[in-house]
Amino acid sequence: MHAAQVCRGINEFLGQSNDAVFISDGGEFGQWAQACISAPHRIINGPSGSIGSAIPFAMAARLAFPESVIVATLGDGTFGFHPLEFDTAVRETLPFVAVVGNDDCWNAEYQIQLRDYGSDRTHACELTTTAYDEVVRTLGGHGESVSNPDELPDALQRAVRSARPACLNVAIERIAAPVFRRT
Fold first, then answer.
1. Taking burial as the number of CB atoms within 10 A of a residue's CB, which of 46, 130, 172, 178 is the most buried?
2. Does the annotation mark 109 as catalytic?
3. Phi then psi dihedrals of residue 22, to 5 deg
């Protein structure tokens, strides 16, 4: 799927709630999400461009907004920073939905290397194909794999209805994020 398709589905889902919380991590998928998704409450990685904070931020958002729909977007690389916090979220009953844009790559770094050095000189950007949804299910949360944009709305609904920390492992294309220039 194209990242914009995923973000469009998330944006439509969050638009159904008057008090939704949107959290975005960094990386290429995070940049697509920040460009395409709006919600009454937004927590993004900011100018520092930090990565890895989406899961802990989602847990904190659940404490601050106990009745809100909370959706965090993050890439497959950033999932690796704090995956075991899903165990904490399960134990502490802190439900949220993490949408992992999975392109089997550190795509932000890949896109820089591709642009600056060419396709024959990319290095150490590949990730193994990992079922992040299964990792979360193993920890007691709700997990689903999504490979078609038509599956996303129902998967988001099921994740929220589960009332557990949830992970939607979404297969996305390996593409560069949009570039925004201020004029």
1. 172
2. yes
3. -115, 130
